[in-house]
From TrEMBL:
The chain crosses the membrane at residues 6-32, 52-69. Keywords: Golgi apparatus, Membrane, Signal, Transmembrane, Transmembrane helix. It is a single-pass type I membrane protein. Involved in the early part of the secretory pathway. It comes from the Eukaryota. Its main location: Golgi. Belongs to the KISH family. Pfam families: DUF1242 (PF06842). GO terms for cellular component: Golgi membrane. This is Protein kish. It comes from Coffea arabica.
Length: 70
């Protein structure tokens, strides 16, 4: 089943996307300078990861636990 129709998989993809964009922005800030267009989506995901990092970390931890045990 694809990630669009399975909510658990969708959340996993979104959390991994946010974490990846935040990591890329921290190490290579020039890649995510544009705030518009296609790269703007990734800039926004990185911004969410920067601003809500405790909540994203809790979400990643809970997703990891649910993948391991459920």
């Amino acid at each position: 089943m694809s990630a669009l129709f399975n909510f658990h998989s969708f959340l996993t993809v979104v959390l991994l996307g946010i974490c990846t964009c935040t990591y890329v922005k921290m190490h290579f800030p020039a890649l995510l300078e544009q705030r518009t267009g296609f790269r703007g989506f990734f800039w926004k995901a990185a911004r969410i990861g920067e601003r809500l990092s405790p909540w994203v970390a809790v979400g990643c931890f809970m997703m990891g636990v649910s993948i391991i045990f459920f």
